Amino acid sequence: MYLGRVVGTCVATRKYAGLEGVKLLMVQPLDRARRPKGRLQVAVDVAQAGPDDLVFLVASREASMALEEAFVPVDAAIVGIVDDLHQVDEAALEEGGAP
Amino acid sequence: MNVCRVLGTLVSTAKHPAYVGHKLLLCQPLDAEGMEAGDVIIAVDHVQAGVGDRVLVMQEGGGIRLLLGAVDGKLPIRSLIVGVVDEVTVDGVAVGAGERGTGQAAPPRASGRKAAGRKGEKRTGRP
Asked: A41 contacts in B (CB within 8 Å)?
């Protein structure tokens, strides 16, 4: 699983039969400092995320398992909205004062 | 499986039901030298790991479904922390030595000393 930021929506009228009613969002994957990393992705949304939300996604086969329908062709799914990310104090860790 | 460093905890309220009751941790994969390598991942914790720990992360959905139990064979979880690492040895040398590799300005001298210290302690501990 990985972090991403919702940056937009994607609309597709003609699509695979199991994908009707599924919300598609454009997501920018993020690195540990929450900077953009890599290219935009289209992900199905099962967490009711909205624009600018920090989310976490699951990729590959497990993405399709996030949906009700069995084995629809998706390879990224937004499975949660991140409320808070408590990251370790990096300076303290480097000095050996790991919590 | 990968050795990773736990960087932080993730709090989420609106999430897929499969994640309810699971602790999510932000993990940085480490390389053979104990340095950070690759993109951070979010993993479900299965062993009560904490921030700063070196952990073993399994990234294989089939095994995770067997471990956690899947409803109708479906479980949208791909990364699971399955162990807390005490020590890693590569070519007879302890790597990481409990401190975090930065991947850039890691002082090899300091980590070497630490590794030696830990080894020393172990030797005296075992008669």
From this structure: none
Rounded CA-CA distance B127/B122 in Å is: 10
- Decide if A22 is inside a domain: yes
Yes or no, beta carbons of A47 and B11 under 8 Å apart: no
* A56 belongs to a structural domain: yes
Contact state of A58 with B9 under an 8 Å Cβ cutoff: no
**Residue A78's CATH number:** 2.40.50.220
User: Which pLDDT value is given to residue A94?
Assistant: 52
Residues forming a β-bridge with B70: none
Q: What is the reported pTM?
A: 0.76
Q: How many CB pairs under 8 A join A and B?
A: 112
Give CB contacts under 8 A, 24+ apart, made by B61-69: B61/A60, B61/A61, B61/A62, B61/A65, B68/B44
Beta bridge partners of B24: B10, B44
Could you report the per-residue pLDDT of B47-105, keeping only the tens digit for each? 999 898 999 999 999 999 999 988 888 899 999 999 999 888 888 888 875 554 433 33
Q: Tens digit of pLDDT for each residue in A5-38?
A: 999 999 999 988 888 889 999 999 998 888 999 9
**Residue A81 placed within a domain:** yes
The whole domain housing B46 covers 2-125
**What CA–CA distance (Å, rounded) separates A86 from B26?**
9
Total count of domains within chain B: 1
